Amino acid sequence: MSTRIPLPYSPKVLELFRNPRNAGSMEDATVKATTGSLACGDMIAMYLKIDDAKEVVLKASFESYGCAANIAAASILTEMVKGKTLHEAWNISWKEVSDELGGLPIIKYHCSILAVGALKRAIRKYYRHRGLRPGWLPEKPTKEELQAVEEEKFIERLYGRASEGKLDEGNRSRS
Amino acid sequence: MGSELEKIRGFLRAHGKPEREVYLDLENSGWVPPQVVEAMLPYFNKYGYGHPSITNRRGWEALEALIEAREYIAHSIGARPSELVFTHSGTEANNLAILGAATANKNKGRKILISAVEHYSVMLPANELANHGFKVVQIPVDSEGIVDLEMLASLVDEDTVLVSIQHVNHEIGSIQPLRSIVEIIRDKNKSTIIHTDAVDAYTKISLDVERLGVDLLSLSSHKILGPKGAGALYIREGTKINRILYGALSTQQYWPGVENVPAIVGFHKASHLALEFMEDHVRYMQSLRDKLLEGIIERVDKVLINGPTGNKRVADNVNVSFLYVEGEALTVELSLRGIYVSSGSACTSRILEPSHVLLAIGRKHEEAHGSILFKVSRYHKPSDIDYVLKQLPQAVRRLRFLSPLKT
Q1: Partners of residue A162 in chain B, C-beta under 8 Å
Q2: What is the predicted pLDDT for the residue at A39?
Q3: Which residues of A79-109 are buried (b: 16+ CB within 10 A; e: fewer)?
Q4: Cys staple from B366: which of A11, A38, B52, B75, with CB 3.0 to 4.6 Å?
């Protein structure tokens, strides 16, 4: 099998994996956004119910196709955004998500980046649909959004390389 | 946040010990039967704990155990004891074979052929040689993981110094037609050195180096319910090979340092236990394998069998992709239910790419991500398989429910 390193997950990751909070789609969601892809083996859908007047997240839910860390990151983020203004929600960093989970292993950082990326995409989509752009919402994509795009594109490059049959470890590491 | 140690301890506490446990991760390692442990124990503190190449009684006792093990294991593959070198793992045996044979014979040619589904301990040393003047070419495999024989024939030429093709694939259990492979290679180039990584074949199919006609063959102790820390390389008499490690002389020409005598004693005992009634064990493992495979297909929808079925598949291997489920999550979910397996998913690996074996047989990334590898043994009971078949559909259902990819 592939080269492996141990994954010292925190008890919190296991708890959320076992009993994920806010799992499943949301019938009355105001907005939904997805990051990742089936081919990446990593996909998060984020649903938000938003109070239009106050611009506050009333509730959030998620769906995840991914590893235990992916499920836990998406789940904890739906808890973290509840009751927050969209501005506050926007400012949640992937590091805060990781910390909230008791610290993800380094190679699982991308799971919390993907979750935050999905949240940011949902917030952007919400304002785009309303034809608004608050001052705090940056025009350029953030690191998390860029990384989500990067991950989605990554797979296309992989498919190219796999077909050339050059899958050695040396050229496979990603930062 | 706590140290790594606190984290893993907390994690294990949170995980808990499931009431029923079925260990099926024998690809990656396994338990050691009590008879093997018993055989090893005296060599830690009663006798034979000396250095086998030193002239005192404890050393001679170690030497006796070493010679016994070498004789037994060599004969079990149709080799002479002088043709067997003990290493500390299968990885080391494969590294010695690839690096040692290629560099010692570079006057014969610079081309190395390996199959596209080799273990990393063959693939990565070969790739390393590509940085040192060798040309490495991968031979493609078909959808069952069997080497393309026509392609092989067209690739072997005057410049081919070494060919390495495993006997049984470690992930998908494909049994290569090794005799035909050797004939094809010899027909094209008589001086090409042929290596086979037989760590997943040993004790599951009968091996005879004379009948197979290979020059080098790797074995590993922990793949046959022996202890970790012992492997072996068969080197046909007359095959030129370079050492790859340097150190104090031991009893062995090609491997310096103190032999791991207790592990080698365990390796010997484990071989003996597995080989004594091998045909019965194999038939039994086949019945468990097919029970598991057929049971999964019956109970879970949207699954793909990875690797061949029937006689082309080794007796202990079951590898299935559960579509729309990510394999690492499934290993964790199954672990919580006391079922211990591994996955070829990207998420279980440091490099975040799925198994190269599954990609080589044409699986798409999303199909490889959901793969689970089970290995049965002669110690498993049909009721263990029943337990897996009861838990597995529930585990898959739970994760599919969480997934945005509604099926």
Answers
A1: 356, 359
A2: 78
A3: ebbbebebeebbebebeebbebbbbbbebbb
A4: A38
A19 within domain boundaries? yes
Q: Is A67 noted as a catalytic residue in this protein?
A: no
Residue of B nearest to A102 (CA): B1
How many residues are there in chain B? 407
B19 residue type, one letter? E
Which one of A13, A26, A31, A40 is the catalytic residue? A40
**CB distance from A17 to chain B under 8 Å?**
yes
Give Cα separations from B352 to A147, B100, B248 (angstroms). Answer: 15, 31, 40
Chain B residue numbers with beta carbons less than 8 Å from the beta carbon of A18 are 336
Task: Enumerate the active-site residues of B.
Answer: 347
What is the per-residue pLDDT across B261-301, written as a single tens digit (0 to 9) for each? 999 999 999 999 999 999 999 999 999 999 999 999 999 99
Which domain range does residue A122 map to?
Answer: 11-163
Q: What is the pLDDT of residues A162-173, one digit of tens each?
A: 433 333 333 333
- Strands B339-340 and B22-23, bridge-based pairing: parallel
Among A111, A113, A118, A148, the one annotated catalytic: A111
Instruction: List the CATH number of the domain containing A31.
Output: 3.90.1010.10
Residue among A2, A8, A107 whose CB faces B7 most closely: A8
How distant is the Cα of B5 from the closest Cα of chain A, in angstroms?
9
Of B17, B238, B200, the C-alpha closest to B119 is B200
- Among all chains, which residue has been given the structure tokens 């990609």? B359
pLDDT for B366: 87
A122 within domain boundaries: yes
Within-domain flag for A5: no
List of domains in chain B: 35-275 (3.40.640.10), 277-402 (3.90.1150.10)
- Residue A1 covered by a domain: no
Q: Could you report the per-residue pLDDT of B9-62, keeping only the tens digit for each?
A: 999 999 999 999 999 999 999 999 999 999 999 999 999 999 999 999 999 999
Q: Rounded mean pLDDT of chain B?
A: 95
Q: Residue A1 pLDDT > 60, yes or no?
A: no
Q: What is the mean pLDDT of residues A106-120?
A: 91
CB nearest to A2's CB, from B4, B27, B344 = B344
* Distance from the A79 Cα atom to the nearest Cα atom in chain B, whole angstroms: 16
The closest alpha carbon to B119, from B127, B107, B130, B108, belongs to B127
State how many domains chain A has.
Answer: 1
